[in-house]
């Protein structure tokens, strides 16, 4: 009886595909909070997609004719175009690794449209003519993502922050910017979309065994690269609500200031404040040469500019960005419930 009722709603493969919804919901929440998603998140979806793909291949080739040909075309588009797009965008720097893995998971899991039969209609309501569901999710994702600048602008207007930057960023107190994810939109000479990555800022602070408050209180000391006498593990730049661990791993209690932080607070300011007086102001080049990797593509000049801004200004603009998995989750939900928004828009304009 239960099996019969399930078959009336959807095929078993299409029902199993709905497992992607809670997985993407969890990934979107975690990505928004930490900008990190574990690789293991996608492995169950890859495995499930591979199994369901075998079942669909068997079904389509058993039917033969037009059904078989359409299935092959849709699989070629999903696995041969959508999945490689995720890898290509990652290689070009447009995607993070988790974003690429998420898109590949969708390409494997949804090469064709699922169908869910409800008493009042069949979901999705508006499938595209091509019938490649992973492509629908991708185009929906782009459209959902386009709403983010508008939401950000409205929030800034309500808060009284009026600037051309209000569509891409928001202001924050310089003393707390290291608790945010995103990228600075300011340099000492003006505005920029390529400012200091805040993950790289946290890595730098942990590498020096200090915090942003100490840096701001005695900037001349920290500009001098000769003040670096000991360095620590920088981590990966994720936000940590505890104080900086100056031993590379152990958490320092709030009532237990660490050596370099104490020195930064107690040491008198040096009379030198001009970056030009040092070969490597702030020890920026030394930091990037010492760590593994590139600190999210940060250059010494970007790091120096960002640090100069943070010690000179009380408020800075930064772009929080929107993790791509968040609109991708939205695009998945819209696709399952409604269908292909872009295709409907193009059809309304007589272009599809």
TrEMBL record:
Gene Ontology MF term list: hydrolase activity
Region entry Disordered, spans: 218-238
UniProt main location, coarse: membrane
GO cellular component terms listed in the entry, alphabetical order: plasma membrane
Domain Prepilin type IV endopeptidase peptidase intervals: 19-147
Annotated Pfam families: Peptidase_A24
EC numbers for this chain: 3.4.23.-
InterPro entries registered for this protein in UniProt: Preflagellin_Peptidase, Prepilin_IV_endopep_pep
Keyword annotations: Cell membrane, Hydrolase, Membrane, Transmembrane, Transmembrane helix
Residue ranges crossing the lipid bilayer per the database entry: 6-29, 41-59, 71-90, 102-120, 132-154, 322-346
UniProt subcellular location: Cell membrane
Topology in the lipid bilayer: Multi-pass membrane protein
Name of the protein described by the UniProt record: A24 family peptidase
């Amino acid at each position: 009886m239960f099996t019969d009722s399930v078959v009336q709603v959807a095929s078993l493969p299409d029902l199993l595909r709905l497992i992607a919804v809670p997985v993407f919901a969890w990934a979107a929440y975690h990505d928004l909070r930490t900008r990190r998603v574990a690789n293991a998140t996608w492995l169950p979806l890859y495995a499930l997609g591979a199994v369901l793909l075998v079942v669909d291949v068997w079904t389509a080739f058993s039917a033969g004719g037009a059904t078989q040909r359409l299935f092959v075309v849709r699989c070629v588009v999903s696995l041969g175009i959508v999945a490689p797009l995720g890898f290509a965008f990652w290689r070009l720097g447009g995607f993070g690794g988790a974003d690429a893995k998420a898109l590949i998971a969708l390409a494997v899991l949804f090469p064709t449209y699922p169908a869910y039969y409800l008493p009042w209609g069949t979901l999705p309501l508006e499938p595209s003519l091509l019938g490649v569901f992973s492509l629908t999710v991708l185009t929906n994702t782009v459209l959902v993502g386009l709403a983010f600048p508008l939401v950000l602008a409205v929030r800034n207007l309500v808060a009284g922050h009026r600037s051309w930057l209000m569509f891409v960023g928001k202001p924050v107190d310089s003393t707390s910017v290291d608790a945010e994810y995103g990228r600075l939109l300011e340099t000492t000479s003006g505005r920029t979309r390529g400012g200091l990555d805040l993950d790289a800022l946290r890595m730098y602070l942990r590498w020096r065994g200090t915090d942003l408050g100490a840096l701001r209180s005695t900037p001349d000391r920290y500009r001098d690269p000769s003040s670096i006498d000991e360095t620590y593990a920088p981590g990966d730049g994720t936000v940590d609500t505890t104080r900086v661990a100056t031993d590379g791993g152990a958490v320092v209690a709030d009532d237990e200031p660490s050596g370099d932080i104490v020195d930064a607070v107690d040491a008198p300011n040096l009379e030198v404040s001009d970056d030009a007086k040092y070969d490597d102001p702030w020890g920026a080049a030394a930091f990037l040469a010492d760590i593994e990797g590139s600190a999210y593509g940060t250059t010494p000049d970007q790091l120096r500019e960002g640090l100069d801004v943070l010690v000179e200004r009380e408020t800075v603009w930064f772009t929080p960005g929107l993790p791509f998995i968040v609109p991708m989750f939205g695009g998945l939900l819209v696709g399952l419930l409604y269908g292909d928004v872009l295709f409907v828009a193009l059809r309304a304009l007589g272009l599809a």
